[in-house]
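Table S2 (text version). Query chain:
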Amino acid sequence: MLDSISITLPITTLGIIALWTRYYYNSWFAPGSFFTLFWFLVILFPQIIAPELPTYSFGLWFIVSFAVAIILGGMVVPYNYYELYTNFAVIENIKKIIQRKSALFLGIITVFSSISILSIIWSLIFGVARFELDYTFVSLLTLPSKLYGDQNSELLVLPWYIRYLIYFVMPASLLGGFLSSFVSGKIKIICFSPFITALIHGVIYSTRSGILLSLVLILSGILSANVMLKKDLDNTFNIRSVIIAVSGIIGLVCIWIFLQWLRGGADYSVFLLSFWDMAISAIFSTTSAFTVWLRTYQPMEISYGLYTFAGPADLLGFRERPLGFYIDAVALRNSYTNIFTAFRGMIHDFTIPGTLFLGILVGYTATVSFIKCISGHIMFLLPLSLFYAFTLFSPLISIFSSNSVVAAWVISFPVLLLVHFEKKFFLR
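Corresponding structure-token output:
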């Protein structure tokens, strides 16, 4: 009984805080509201779907505290939501400029996606030659398990053109998310096509990270653009959006099961539904794993961002990024996990008090970006989308652990800068 109350209390508190921030900002997409609501759902669903997973209250209260830190950081910003909603002329001009430049955006997305497709084609050629396969369907079905086995054993060394060309799918995903909110009809198919490219690449290597990262970047682009277009209020959260969200979650679970089947060698005698319990445990276990880890956490030497920003740190030679990221794992009912949410890396980097202070800074920066987007400052789409992407990926790990994702914002910067300068010229 006491254990149940100790888990229910922080979840209920987070839900109440989410409702209050929605009332305060009059928007679910304000950074404090969005983060709190998202993590309320992330914690709640495992308690409903997989209540047998071990969960400890101290870790949940830390998440509540981090959400409060983000809200406090946002409240430091001088803010009057309704006054900021009067600048519709600027927004209409931005819509006209982006629609005029849609051919340029679509061209960039198409070129980046095509470059990524080249990586996929070379991956197939490389894999078939490496394992002496042929191009029949049955033979290609065995390729993912062979590539994954060598990669897991650290025997797989991919040529540079395969490794780096697939990076272009990430800026294509982010730009596609931005543009999709400004266009309609069949053009949206091109905007979402980078996800299909990432999905095919994920199937070949039976890996999930690239698929999820592409989806997160598309969603973060859509969310930040919707804020600028005043689509961020209750018309976003309706029955249709709930159905789409539920369908998306089921779709991701099915993709997880399919990739797990490919890793096992695509054995036709194995019934895919046998992976269901494993999938549920793996997908909904990260919060549980974090609370288990934090319960026995002992302060250690501060890493100063080497975990949170593991991708750039590895690229610059400060810290090698290991395969699987964390060596230790938490045992689950049918498997184990070494995925502990983004919070573990931040605690390693900045300690618990330092992470909460970082939350205040993140809340302040994200709220400034939110207000600037409402006011029509197009360059602030980048930091706002960065916040949404970090939040959406935080149940797994820090999104900055991937260099390809960091490159997405770097490459998208000059594209939005072009629109920014044209907007200034247009408004003269």
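Notes on Table S2: The CA atoms of residues 313 and 336 lie 27 Å apart. The first strand starts at residue 330 and ends at 331.
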